[in-house]
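Q: Hi! First time doing this. I have a protein sequence and I read that you can turn it into a structure. Is that right? Here it is:
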Amino acid sequence: MKKFTLALSLLTLANSLFAKDINIGVVLPLTGSVAAYGQDVFYGIDLANKLNPKLSNGDTIKLVTIDTKGDKLETSNGVNRLISTDKVLGIIGEATTPNTIQAISIAEEKKIPLIAPVASGDKLLDKKEYASRVCFKDSFQGDKFAAYIAKDLALKNAVIIMDQSNVYSLGLARAFENSFELNGGKIIKKLVINSGDKDFKAIVSQLKSLSPDFVYMPIYHPEAALIARQARQVGFDKLLTAGDGVNNQTFIELGGNAVNGVIFTDSFDYNNPSTKLSKDFIAAYEKVKSTKELPAFSAMGADAYFVMLNAMNACIDNLTSKCVNEKIHQTKNFEGVSGIISIDQSGNAIRSVVIKEIKNQKQSYITTLNP
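A: Yes, that's right. Below is the predicted 3D structure, encoded as structure tokens:
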């Protein structure tokens, strides 16, 4: 027995002596106008790493983080630095679709696997070999939500407000419009804004005169919150709806009471964990934050990390970027924090979409729509 114990101790010591650090890059907007997205995603990645910092062979995963400030040039410089200087095995990021496109273009050229946690633009992964995501595509998000609005809520006339400078907004608006019309709905007007706009008097004036059954806003949270406030100020009281660009607490803080009643799509609800990992992760989050209200983007960040970790462990005897990328694309029925995730050969995730409503300044679960 003593010999066995000694042998085991020596094996453990040997493993620790030969264990090494493996760098994983994280590129996110931690400051700037869309910092709320990046901060939520990063917290999920960071907590997942703290809970599971090692590979099965004892190697330690180190996160090397770049704050892109929401800027495309900062994203490019950051990804290049991660690959050339920090020698990362893989990358998680970015948060917004435009910046993720920028990050993917470099990772693809350098053959470094990149997992996008929340970038949902349909064409994001077109003809890409080294990129994947754990979130749904906009065509799925928009289609499912439009059918829900038309069939379950029986609303027929809509105005769409879209950001003409944002590919996420344009793609999601198009997907919603196509599905809504197929389900018997009518888009009576499409209004355009630009990221960074703050005065929406002309927009809300048109909303009031058009008097649609509801308004769909596939835009980011800063503009959506201001539109909600200004619309309510002029007496527009019809339903406001949105995509997952408004799924954070900052939207509620910016919008105040004006965003109560907003219905939107999301990828996760902390009150409805569907896997053991989800329940365990929410419990860990609650210990740190004293609340179980885990943001959806934090869940998605965690899933990007866990999918990467799973792929790395599958390549433990051949720990290369090529092998890790192949295993990511072979992900099937992975029981993640945000639910069950499969990733096809194109890198796209097959997963459910959640519908929520803001009630009394809190996100409230309505239903889950499966693929």
